[in-house]
Write a structure and sequence with these properties.
434 residues; 6-stranded mixed beta barrel; alpha+beta; elongated; two-stranded antiparallel ribbon
Length: 434
């Protein structure tokens, strides 16, 4: 609907301009003369307007890129794009979370893989078992609490892609007794690569279980998810320790994050059909920080768009008023050759729409040039941690409708609003036929 409205507005503007150029060619020449008489001020004001449209385009593009990066960062820090839980799991405390596990996770995974509507939407599916316990360094006699994520080693590579390995390697598909620790947890108990450690965990039967293990790798966590630190362990090993075959969550990684809502609707429909006691959450609802950050970016961009509209409206109105004031000496001349108030109003309307199309065209050319140049290698953003250029920013506009709205429809809308007073003034002018 929005795209259709944009096309209609643009088409009407083009029809008005083409009609005046082809049918009313004399009027067109006259308007160019009026514009030329106030050339410096008109060009100066047009440059200011175009600058704000370029600014709006760049800010919107960079904010879109930040949101996409935030989305990928969240999905690749052991969350995925969608997570399926047993009802009550999210509301339970840490000590009671083991009571709300998905009892038959493989049945859920099979159902998702065999559904035709989900074919092509899902990239990876992984079971995860989340639990807590304490880790003990026997050599230094130190211990601390941890939050563990149990996952298949192969799936850990994709779901934990933003957990940067700084020592050793990721979980092994062969040595299932080895674990990986985040750097915060490792430093708190003095563990390093290949160090021996003892895990103390309360199993599903309520008994304390001690397990000897070895540190396979140390990683820097991509996101803070625990006050104590994160430990990763192969899910089969964790199930043996906890004496359970259940899972805390079934996590989904999608081929296209834009289709999150579509996938959610299909999964919720399946859950309802099979009467599962499950709940499904997308990535942006799993982190309050992410949700608030995206809302903050959206508010910033909305403010920029409103500011651009107001400035465009004000400055286009200024150009039209300057050119209208300069016409008073010509009104009687035009009246003597048959002009009336409606003719003068039509001239002002054409001038405004023509200015809007000039602004749209120049803004599009300038913005596309900047877009092309920046996106060749990206724009280097200095990192506070390293002091170097560690982040590449790009201009991203994945929806052409939003781009057309800002660069084409906004100038036309602001022009229509700015035309109200000059047109009214032309309609009320007294034409002297003497």
């Amino acid at each position: 609907m929005g795209i259709l409205l944009n096309v209609i507005i643009l088409s009407l503007a083009l029809i008005v301009v083409l009609y005046t150029f082809l049918v009313k060619y004399t009027d067109t020449k006259y308007l160019f003369l009026i514009f030329k008489n106030n050339f410096r001020i008109n060009v100066f004001v047009l440059i200011i307007i175009i600058f704000f449209y370029v600014f709006s385009f760049l800010c919107g593009g960079f904010l879109n890129h930040l949101i996409i990066q935030l989305e990928e960062h969240t999905a690749r820090t052991n969350i995925g794009h969608i997570q399926i839980y047993q009802k009550g799991y999210l509301d339970s405390s840490r000590n009671e979370s083991m009571k709300y596990l998905i009892e038959k996770p493989l049945e859920i995974i099979t159902l998702l893989n065999e559904n035709d509507d989900l074919n092509g939407l899902i990239s990876n599916i992984a079971e995860q078992l989340v639990f807590s316990g304490s880790i003990h360094n026997e050599e230094k006699n130190t211990s601390t609490y941890f939050r563990a994520i149990a996952i298949e080693p192969f799936e850990s590579i994709k779901f934990g892609a933003y957990d940067l390995t700084i020592s050793g390697s990721d979980l092994s598909k062969v040595n299932h007794q080895e674990i990986t620790l985040d750097s915060k947890l490792a430093s708190s108990v003095g563990l390093s690569y290949s160090s021996k450690a003892e895990l103390r965990i309360i199993d599903s039967l309520g008994r304390e279980t001690k397990t000897n293990t070895r540190v396979r790798g140390i990683f820097q966590a991509g996101a803070k998810s625990s006050d104590f630190g994160i430990l990763k362990i192969p899910i089969e090993t964790a199930r043996k320790i906890l004496k359970t075959s259940s899972a805390s969550t079934v996590s989904l990684f999608l081929n296209d994050a834009k289709k999150t809502e579509q996938t959610l609707a299909i999964i919720n429909s399946l859950i309802e059909q099979h009467h599962f006691e499950l709940e499904v959450l997308p990535w942006y609802e799993l982190s309050d920080h992410v949700s608030e950050t995206i809302k903050f970016f959206s508010v910033i961009f909305l403010f920029i768009k409103v500011l651009t509209l107001i400035i465009s409206f004000s400055l286009i109105g200024l150009i039209l008023m300057i050119n209208t004031e300069s016409r008073h000496n010509d009104i009687n001349v035009l009246a003597s050759i048959g002009a009336n108030q409606f003719y003068l109003a039509r001239m002002v309307i054409f001038e405004g729409i023509f200015l809007a199309l000039i602004i749209s065209f120049l803004s599009f050319i300038i913005n596309y040039s900047i877009y092309y140049l920046i996106n060749i290698n990206g724009l280097s953003i200095p990192s506070e941690k390293t002091g170097g250029n560690s982040y590449q920013a790009y201009i991203v506009w994945d929806k052409w409708s939003d781009l057309v709205l800002i660069l084409v429809i906004f100038p036309i809308i602001s022009t229509i609003a700015a035309l109200i007073y000059p047109v009214y003034k032309m309609l009320c002018v007294r034409v002297n036929f003497r």
